[in-house]
Structure formats: C-alpha cells, structure tokens
Amino acid sequence: MSLADKMLPAIPVADVIVIGGGVIGMSAARELAKTGARVVVVDRELKMGHGCSYGNAGWITPCFSMPLPQPGMFWKSILWLLDPESPLYIKPRASFELLGWLVNFTRHMNQTHLERSANLLVELSKRSLEIYASLDEAKPGSFGFSKSGLLMVSRTKAGVKAAVDEMELVARFGVPGRAVSEAQAREIEPALLAGVLGGVYFPEEAHAEPLAVVDRLREDAVSSGAAMLNGCDVLDFIEGEGKIQALVTTRGILRAKEFVLAAGTFSNGLSRKLGIRAPILGGKGYALIVDPLERQPKVPMMLVEKKIAVTPRDGSLRLAGTMEIVGTDLSITHRRVAAIVRGSREFLPVPEKPTVREIWRGLRPCTPDGLPMIGRTKRYSNLVYACGHQMLGLQSGSGTGQWVAGIIAGRSDPILDAALVSPDRF
C-alpha cells in the first residue's frame, strides 16, 4: 500500500493549488483568486511569508534588475571563493550538483545574457511596482510602501563607474536615474559620512515591509475566496496521464486541476520528486534590524563596494547583504554578520557595537543563469513554475503572479520573453 493510500480522504478538488506562501506564491494566488478560481495555498511554514520573504531588504527597485552572473565576474568569483567575508561566497564542498551549477553560472557571465535578462527583469519589476502602488492607494500605509527613491553610493572611482554603468543599462529599459557627486549624495542623504565619492540616484524606486507585503497580498487573496493551509509539507505527488493529479501532504491528499510551484529554494527537491531538473541553490543572505542611528538615514541605499542594502524603517534600520551559496544550510555565520556591520560603518554612523534587535537569514533561490523559472513544463501539462527569483522576489513578485495567472488562463504575453525563463531550459 502506498503512502497516498494510507492518507485521509482528499479535500474537494481545487481549481489551482499554489505550493509556497511567500511573496511569489501569494501574488499568484491573489491574481488567480481575482478571476474566480478556487485557489488553495499550501506552505511548509507555520506562518505564511516567514521564509525568504520575511527578512529581505524590502526593495521594489527596477534599477536592480540584474541576473547574478555578470560579465567580468569570473576572476572576482575565484577570489571570493577564498574570502568567507566576500559579497558572494560559494561554500566549497564535494557536490556534483554544485559543480554543474558553477559551470552553468560561468557560461552566463556575458553581455548578451546580461542585456536580455535585464530587459525581462526590468519589465517584471516595473509591473510589480505598479501593482504595489495600486495596493497602497487602495489601503494607504498597510505595508509600509514608500516611493522615496534609491541611492547607490561608493567610496572608490571604480565603484562610482560600476553604478553609472548600471544606471546607463537600465535607462535603456525605461528606468530613470542620474549620477550624483559627493555633495549631491550627501544632500539626498545627510547621514552619509565623509569619504563618499558619489554614485547614482534613482528617484522612482520604492520600498516596503516585506512580511507586511505578503500579509496584504494574502488578505486580498482570502477576500477573493482563496484558502490557506499553513504548516503543510508536500511529501509526494500523485501523477497520471501526463498530469499531476494530487499532492500527498502532511495535511492529507490535495487535488486540483492546476498546480503552481512557488516554493523558492525548496522547489529543487520537490522537482526531483517529479523527475524535473530545477537547479536552484539557496543563496543565504542576512539582514540585521538595529536601533535607529543618531543620524538616521532617510532613503534606501546600496553601499556599492560592500554590496550592503540599507533600508530605513519606522523606529529602526535594516542592514542586509552577502550571498553565500550553501544549498539549504540555514546556520548563521557570525563572521559574515560582523562584516555587514563593519561595511556599514564605512558609510554611516553605525556604532561599533550596535543594538541588534534581530538577526535574520534566508535562502534566496538562485538558478545558475540568474533568471527565475516561470511557465509550464513539457512533462506535466498542468504544472506551472514560479520560482528561482534570486534576490528579486519582492520586487518582481506581483508581476510574476500576474504572468502566472495569464499562463493558466491560456494567455501569452507579447512583451515578456517566455523562452528565457522556461522551466525546460535546463
């Protein structure tokens, strides 16, 4: 007798089951429920949104629509392998999966891939920004949405040039920005310390409280009829006739006509059960919530050399950064946490030992080409992927949800390049 045969009777058939209750899954659920579909969201966490969507920087910034692999990164990444405090650290381990991921990663460090990817990611992010703005307009202040722009600052000429190059690339896709001098940077953000050479300011970018975003999306989805199953682990799949028939879960057998896989880093293991290759590795990132500074920043900032994201909050400050390719290891590397504090102190009046209210770490779902997996698979006609968004889950989440709803409805998108993010590309 199979595990499925031993389970409780199945709940009534849903139209769509969304696996994953983070910002991607909840965005898809909201869009699908709005069409009248009977939607069920299942999530392994006891509370929706408490995975990678919980503690990210909170940025909704089309200006940062870049894939992880970029031109010129090869030799940098070799050096970073030797430095546990580097912005991108790949933890050495004997793994054929990691080796294959790294080979594929290096293959995509080219200008052509960067530009094609940026074009798609900017479009997804711009659509998401519009949706978040409309959500805030409908219920002002419900998730801390603020369109206060984004400032990239650097202490080196090379860093300023990198920021300007990025500005010029995304400007081609409709993201406005302007180069700023040291004086102009400090006029925008008076909390900056002396020694900053300049950078770039993007005036139309926004930020929000990431968990509150998920809560707001969930509220809309539930009001449209979606059901939520927290603490529900997917154990296996029941397949037949080229389709997924049901999920075997810790909450029973769940049947549906369509399935959306939006489980972030854990989509890799679930895909393996289905015989589908989904090379998504966890990129562990950290975020610290500290007491407000004596001179509290007013606008979100990227500290270019250190790859640290600074986000002002009501009564506190979030410092986020680092990328550690680790698989599913959620242990805390205190050396990397300390590096975030040290790096921040070069730009801002952060105390040597700040009062840390919370240390968070999460697994950003990283594909080797730096692009999400979105769309149907050839193997199962009723399975849609929506995962692998690296560091861009929040900023491209609602746009992805909208795209997923269109895919399930049978609509093609005339602007977005579906082949570029096809789950079958690997």
Task: Give the helices and strands, then pairings.
Layout: H1 3-6, E1 14-19, H2 23-34, E2 39-42, E3 59-60, H3 73-81, E4 88-90, H4 96-107, H5 111-138, E5 150-154, H6 157-171, E6 178-181, H7 182-188, E7 198-202, E8 206-207, H8 210-223, E9 227-229, E10 234-240, E11 243-249, E12 252-261, H9 267-273, E13 281-290, E14 301-303, E15 308-313, E16 316-327, H10 334-345, E17 356-366, E18 373-376, E19 383-387, H11 393-408
Parallel strand pairs: 1-2, 1-12, 2-9, 4-16, 5-14, 12-19
Antiparallel strand pairs: 3-8, 5-7, 6-7, 10-11, 11-12, 13-16, 13-17, 14-15, 15-16, 18-19
Helix pairs in contact: 2-8, 2-11, 5-11
Question: Could you walk me through the main structural features you see in this protein, from its secondary elements to its overall organization?
Answer:
This protein is of the alpha/beta class. The chain has helices at 3-6, 23-34, 73-81, 96-107, 111-138, 157-171, 182-188, 210-223, 267-273, 334-345, 393-408; strands at residues 14-19, 39-42, 59-60, 88-90, 150-154, 178-181, 198-202, 206-207, 227-229, 234-240, 243-249, 252-261, 281-290, 301-303, 308-313, 316-327, 356-366, 373-376, 383-387. The strands form three sheets. Strands 4, 5, 6, 7, 13, 14, 15, 16 and 17 form a nine-stranded mixed beta sheet that branches. Strands 1, 2, 9, 10, 11, 12, 18 and 19 form an eight-stranded mixed beta sheet that branches. Strand 1 (14-19), helix 2 and strand 2 (39-42) form a beta-alpha-beta unit. Helix 2 (23-34) runs parallel beside helix 8 and helix 2 runs parallel beside helix 11. The chain is globular. The model has no long low-confidence stretch (mean pLDDT 93).
